[in-house]
């Protein structure tokens, strides 16, 4: 069979010629969709250890492996043969140990007891994950976010930014880049003003994307109400008063805001009156 010489890329260039490294990775990814990475920084001892764990596991006596055998694809850590042994017409000659590692605390209790060296797989997976994120950042920087989608919780935010793009605002379900204007403040309405104005003003979702050429610094000043402040739609600001949001104490909102934003649900939803 003819040999395919997929490009071999030296990751060491990250510290010496990053632009050249990005060029090589992008070209290889376009032309072959594959490349080999050397000098990637994952220590040799971790590479040898994980390889040995694999070999030692499959050399264990069957009775040690039997408890991990499962045809249930939902089981996190499992041993299985071929792809779908029960249903498939043709079996492939392959045994697989599926061994999820991230987040560690969710999976480590399901890892095999033997071989004991399995525990060392954790450090390998941390390093490989770091390397994958770094590669993604080089290949497609806007896939890595500096700050994920959110709206500010406070009243109003004044943001001073350099002439470096990164801030994006969600408008009509489209992400729009904010063009930096020298010495201008980017002023952003927070959730509290949306609520106090009974929805007349909007606290827009925004995010920050990274780029691989220059770093970006922004100075963000948040104007918060005091933590015990009672917030509600303001009668004086709203004509035809028909409040859309329930009243609350600011610090209570802040704690639900944190969990809701992490879970990517709108922090305003739980305070809306059901209509
Ligand atoms: O860095 C930026 O431009 C925005 C930061 C931001 O949105 C925030 O800190 O809430
Ligand atoms: Fe923000």
Alpha-beta content class: alpha+beta
Mean pLDDT: 86
The count of β-strands is 13
Helix-strand topology string = EHEHHEEHHEEEEEHEEEEH
Regarding quaternary structure, what we see is single chain
How far is it from the N-terminal to the C-terminal residue, by CA? 69 Å
Q: What is the C-alpha radius of gyration, as a whole number of Å?
A: 26 Å
Largest sheet: 4 strands, antiparallel
Helix content: 25-40%
Q: Counting H and I runs of at least 4 residues, what is the number of helices?
A: 7
> How does the overall form come out from the CA principal axes?
extended
Bound molecules: 2-oxoglutaric acid, fe (ii) ion
Major sheet strand order: 5-10-7-8
Protein name: Fe2OG dioxygenase domain-containing protein
GO molecular function: L-ascorbic acid binding; metal ion binding; oxidoreductase activity
Keywords: Iron, Metal-binding, Oxidoreductase, Vitamin C
InterPro entries: DIOX_N, IPNS-like_FE2OG_OXY, IPNS-like_sf, Oxoglu/Fe-dep_dioxygenase_dom, Plant_2OG-oxidoreductases
């Amino acid at each position: 069979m003819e040999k395919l010489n997929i490009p071999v890329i030296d990751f060491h260039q990250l510290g010496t010629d990053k632009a050249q490294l990005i060029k090589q990775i992008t070209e290889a990814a376009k032309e072959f969709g594959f490349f080999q990475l050397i000098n990637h920084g994952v220590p040799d001892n971790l590479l040898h250890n994980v390889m040995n764990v694999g070999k030692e596991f499959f050399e264990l006596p069957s009775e040690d492996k039997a408890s991990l055998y499962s045809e249930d694809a939902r089981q996190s850590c499992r041993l299985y043969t071929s792809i779908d042994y029960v249903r498939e017409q043709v079996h492939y000659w392959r045994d697989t140990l599926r061994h999820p590692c991230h987040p560690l605390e969710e999976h480590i209790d399901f890892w095999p007891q033997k071989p004991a060296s399995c525990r060392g797989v954790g450090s390998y997976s941390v390093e490989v994950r770091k390397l994958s994120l770094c590669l993604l950042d080089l290949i497609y920087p806007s896939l890595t976010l500096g700050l994920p989608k959110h709206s500010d919780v406070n009243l109003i935010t004044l943001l001073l930014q350099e002439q470096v793009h990164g801030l994006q605002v969600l408008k009509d379900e489209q992400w729009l880049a904010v063009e930096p204007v020298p010495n201008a403040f980017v002023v952003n309405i927070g959730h509290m003003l949306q609520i106090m104005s009974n929805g007349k003003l909007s606290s827009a979702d925004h995010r920050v994307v990274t780029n691989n050429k220059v770093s970006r610094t922004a100075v963000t000043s948040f104007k918060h109400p005091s933590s015990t402040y009672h917030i509600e739609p303001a009668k004086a600001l709203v004509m035809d008063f028909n409040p859309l949001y329930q009243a609350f104490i600011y610090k209570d909102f802040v704690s639900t805001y944190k969990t809701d934003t992490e879970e990517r649900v709108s922090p305003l939803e739980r305070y809306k009156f059901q209509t």
